[in-house]
Amino acid sequence: MKAKGEKDKKKEERFAQLGALDLPEMHFGGMMRNFGPGIILMMTGIGTSHVITAPTAGGRFGYDLLWVIPVAYLLKYYGYEMAFRFTNATGKSIMEAYATAWLKWPLWYMLLTTLIQCCIGQAGRLIAAAAVTYYIFSVYFGLPLSMGVYALFLALLSVAIILCGGYRAVETTCKWLALILIVSQLMIYLVEPAPLAAFRHFAILATPEGSWIIVSAFLGLLPTGMDVSLQASEWVLAKKAGVGCIRPLLEDLKLAPRFDPFAPVKEDLAVPIEKLPPHAREYCRRWMKTSLTDYRCGQIVSFASACIFLLIAAIWIFPGHQGTEIGADYPKIFAVGPWMMIVLLLGVFAAAFSTAFNYFDGWPRVVGACCRNLFRQTAALAGVAQTDLTPAKRRTWYSEYNIYRLTMLFSLTTSVIIILGGPKPTVIVLAASLLAVIIAPVIFFLNIYYCFAVIPRDNREWYPSLVVAVLAWGSCIVFTGVSVILMANRYLDLG
Fold it and tell me: Domain 31-356+417-491 carries which CATH code?
């Protein structure tokens, strides 16, 4: 009787925890303080496509290609949103959903492609950040060291910040870099804003001669690669808020089923929200709204950033260089003064560095997620957060934490080696973009499918509406078709 009484008391204490959850503030200022994964996704995406492709489009073709930017964002919108929605509704990464597929083929597929991206993809992102750093230090500080040296420095700096501070350090760093980028772009743009007539090009579907490669780059890489949606799902979990925070407690109280990746059942991923006490239900509802707002605001800023980079180039550079590289024309910004050039470079550095920085955390998280769903030994030692680490997790090489760290080291080493002794940077970037294009349709489809297959249909707040369903599947079909056309024309030389 005594044991039963203690058990009942512990259960009451657990239920009391659900009733004592701190509800996040829902006014916009309060929500902004809780933003995180959406900002990280935003700063991961604002990279090469924004600081190279967008200025190239503006410098060569003026405002003519402005319409491509909203098309690219709209096409991919639901691929990312479904990852956010799934994780906030279930408290599980979308990678757990991938474990329910036949023979877990999506996990094997993602493990292989992510390891390749850790090498080639990271080399492409890192060299973009190193190029900006090289320019700043050679022009303003008289330190024209090799590109490889700057790449190595940025890589070591990124890894040190991440390993010392974990997810919180990633989130904080991205918020500061986002602030630098936004202020920089606004200062440059407001010197001479684009005329109102320029914005009519959002509705004029022009494709000037020679613009196809830029159009394809926009459609393929804006706002970023679809694989980043998997990283975003892991970042939502790392935030430790909403359903993801209380899912273990819900499982202990039998308010949610336990998911076993080695006997995977899709239904076990779902959280029956109607079973939760009212306070806990409100807590989860608020965090879902906060997380989706975080994502949407990040996409709006990312979209505006791409437009501003194009507009700045159209104003100050057009008609510019006729090749595919516009970087040589950046010094024309000196026309607004040397201080504006410094401001511009700070913004470009924030954009380029944030991408490489976030990938050092994001891709290792995806590799760790694949391993915890593929191998029992890793599943028994899951988790990479500093607060979750046990002595066994630290000393066992196949724990998720050590796989995460080993993948990070692998990415750092191989990407720097590629930069030092590999092919030309342009070849690296093209190879990385090809991988992104190949992977994207598969991830897009899976994200949408599992969102509809797992979230309970009667949970009308979280289950996607009919309108969302039509838009999501429609954009997936169109995006897949566009991806096939892009690969045929750009890489196979069939068009």
Answer: 1.10.4160
